[in-house]
Amino acid sequence: MPQEQYTHHRSTMPSSEGPQVYKVGIYGWRKRCLYFFVLLLMILILVNLAMTIWILKVMNFTIDGMGNLRITEKGLKLEGDSEFLQPLYAKEIQSRPGNALYFKSARNVTVNILNEQTKVLTQLITGPKAVEAYGNKFEVKTVSGKLLFSADSNEVVVGAERLRVLGAEGTVFPKSIETPNVRADPFKELRLESPTRSLVMEAPKGVEINAEAGNMEATCRTELRLESKDGEIKLDAAKIKLPRLPHGSYTPTGTRQKVFEICVCANGRLFLSQAGTGSTCQINTSVCL
């Protein structure tokens, strides 16, 4: 009982000291640093927002795309010149209707066709010095599908109705050529020439040489041979002249005539012999030697 009274008395005694106040928060240099960082963060956010708006404006970002790039239902649409620094993979590239499609490069433009194993099957290279195409076969066709030109490892086919060579030096064939008809342009000369070797024309059913409105000339250095194995050689003309045939000897005492007969040696050589009352070919057999 006395102890309880003492406790109560102590608790009811008025305190001579004032109430104690505890401060909660950041004060002093910490508060200034916090305000500085908050201000710096706001400045960075504003600068970032301004840069983003500037980039959107410069790059011309819209709901439909960016700059010259537009997103459509059929794919991507580029307007104006476009530059790709990395490889471009696309299923189809086409220009706008009525406009041309240009591919520009400082060195070359290469088009590759790959298989499933990424192996090059066909390659087209357009460079500053040449245009090269690699493939098993090369074909050129018309819109209707008619073959105009074809080339592979076995043969080269020209499907056009007419092949014209406009070079001043003509056309050179190191090997043989097979054709049913060789014809020059109207009012132009046709020349078949072999400067250093022989010129041979063969056909299983004959060779026809025809000049409708001009002369025909065959010139060689050594021999000119017309050969028919199973048929005949026909020279059909109003006049046939052999101006350089060798002449056989004639008798000085006899009257020299201007009439000759054509004689044939056993080896096929022709020569002229002065005509007489009878054949004079036997007198000039020395020409056949």
Description of the molecule:
The chain has 289 residues and is an alpha+beta fold. Among the domains are: 24-82; 103-170, no CATH class; 248-288, no CATH class. Helix content is 14%, strand content 17%. The chain is built from two helices and eleven strands, in the order H-H-E-E-E-E-E-E-E-E-E-E-E. The chain has a three-stranded antiparallel β-sheet, with no helix packed on it. Strand 5 (120-126) and strand 6 (131-134) form a beta hairpin. The longest helix has 30 residues, at 29-58. The chain is rod-shaped, with a radius of gyration of 52 Å. The termini are far apart. 2% of the residues are buried.
What key phrases describe this protein's structure?
transmembrane helix; alpha+beta; rod-shaped; 3-stranded antiparallel beta sheet; 289 residues; disordered N terminus; signal-anchor
Could you state the order of secondary-structure elements as H and E?
Answer: HHEEEEEEEEEEE
Task: Outline the low-pLDDT stretches.
Answer: 1-11
First and last CA, distance: 179 Å
Q: What is the overall shape?
A: rod-shaped
Helix content: 10-25%
InterPro entries: Sarcoglycan (IPR006875), Sarcoglycan_gamma/delta/zeta (IPR039972)
Protein name: Delta-sarcoglycan
Family: Belongs to the sarcoglycan beta/delta/gamma/zeta family.
Subcellular location: Cell membrane, Sarcolemma; Cytoplasm, Cytoskeleton
